[in-house]
Design a protein that fits this description.
By secondary structure, the chain is of the alpha+beta class. 38% of the residues lie in helices and 28% in strands. A hairpin with a 2-residue loop joins strand 4 and strand 5. About 4% of the residues have low confidence.
């Protein structure tokens, strides 16, 4: 299990979180097939979207955790905001606006836990 808490991730960014997810998936699953490569790419995309949104919109990444549990990859991202993610009407003149939709589409389950000091989003991706 790979776990990071606030003091360790003060300098952590999307690239670091993606590296952690890649390591967890590769070590736990030894993924080599076409389905496995697609799973890895989906997991990395969900990780990028959640961590970048925590950094851009959530006041910063406060906790990150990626682990294999019960045949699924769990990616947990915490930030300082108590505002739940929501769908944004896409403006063709503006980049972005697809992260939450992408996360919900690729994950088999997404949970948002709002606490007084921020929120944790858990995305569950079933292993192939």
């Amino acid at each position: 299990m790979t776990m990071h808490t606030a003091p360790e991730i003060q300098e952590m960014g999307c690239h670091d979180a993606r590296a952690e997810v890649r390591a967890v998936v590769e070590t736990a699953c030894r993924l080599r097939s076409g389905h496995a490569r697609r799973f890895r790419e989906d997991a990395l995309l969900v990780t990028s979207e959640l961590t970048s949104n925590a950094i851009l919109h959530g006041g910063g990444l406060t906790r990150f955790n990626a682990r294999i549990e019960d045949g699924s990859l769990l990616v947990q991202v915490s930030d300082q905001s108590m505002t739940a993610p929501h769908h944004v009407h896409h403006n063709p003149g503006q980049p972005g606006g697809f992260g939450w939709m992408i996360t919900q589409r690729l994950a088999s389950h997404v949970c948002v836990d709002i606490q007084p000091d921020g929120k944790t989003i858990t995305a569950v991706l079933a292993l192939p």
